[in-house]
């Protein structure tokens, strides 16, 4: 796999943070776990249930030493979300993400969760909230 990086960009590979000084391409020749900087969500950005789940999952990639703990957190959040979500697209996406996590395909699971952000946001913006979840912050105009 070949990855193109811009000057100053970071990439997380097997838990290590690498920042490049100039524009470059790197080729990954074996099976590694990586996460590009533009896919990293900061903790203060994780406000909705699916964003919180994404944040926990990305932590498994960034901090492999604590994978067992973050894996437990992932399953706890996933179970809570599953109990309250009525939207079929969100349910199906969560099931796909869970299957990928079981297979330890974390990067692919993150991609599935990112695709669900727009659906979740639309539901919350239209006040058609079909989920209740602790710490869910939403603006009600």
Could you name the key traits of this structure?
141 residues, alpha+beta, 3-stranded antiparallel β-sheet, 13% strand, disordered C terminus
- DSSP strand (E) fraction? 5-15%
Could you name the ranges where pLDDT drops below 50 across 5 or more consecutive residues? Answer: 129-141
Overall pLDDT: 85
Q: How far from one another are the termini?
A: 46 Å
What best-fitting shape do the alpha-carbon axes yield? globular
Largest sheet: 3 strands, antiparallel
For the largest sheet, list the strands in their spatial order: 3-2-5
Tell me the series of helices and strands, N- to C-terminal: EEEEEHHHH
Helix content: 40-55%
| Number of contiguous helices | 4
Class per helix and strand makeup: alpha+beta
Q: What value does the Rg take, in angstroms?
A: 16 Å
User: How many strand elements?
Assistant: 5
Could you characterize the architecture of this molecule?
By secondary structure, the chain is α+β, with helices and mostly antiparallel strands. 48% of the residues lie in helices and 13% in strands. It has 4 helices and 5 strands, in the order E-E-E-E-E-H-H-H-H. Strands 3-2-5 form a 3-stranded antiparallel beta sheet, with helices on one face. It has a two-stranded antiparallel sheet with strand order 1-4. A hairpin with a 2-residue loop joins strand 2 and strand 3. Helix 1 runs antiparallel to helix 2, helix 1 runs antiparallel to helix 4 and helix 3 packs antiparallel against helix 4. It starts with a strand and ends in a 16-residue tail after the last helix. The C terminus is likely disordered.
């Amino acid at each position: 796999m070949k990855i193109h990086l811009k000057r100053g960009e970071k990439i997380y590979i097997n838990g290590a943070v690498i920042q490049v000084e100039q524009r470059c391409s790197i080729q990954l020749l074996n099976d590694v776990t990586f996460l590009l900087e533009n896919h990293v969500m900061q903790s203060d950005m994780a406000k909705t249930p699916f964003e919180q789940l994404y944040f926990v999952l990305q932590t498994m990639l960034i901090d492999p030493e604590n994978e067992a703990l973050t894996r437990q957190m992932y399953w706890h959040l996933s179970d809570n979300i599953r109990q309250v979500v009525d939207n079929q697209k969100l349910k199906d996406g969560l099931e796909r993400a869970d299957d990928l996590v079981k297979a330890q395909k974390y990067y692919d699971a993150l991609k599935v969760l990112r695709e669900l952000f727009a659906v979740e946001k639309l539901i919350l913006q239209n006040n058609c909230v079909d989920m209740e979840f602790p710490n869910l912050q939403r603006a009600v105009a």
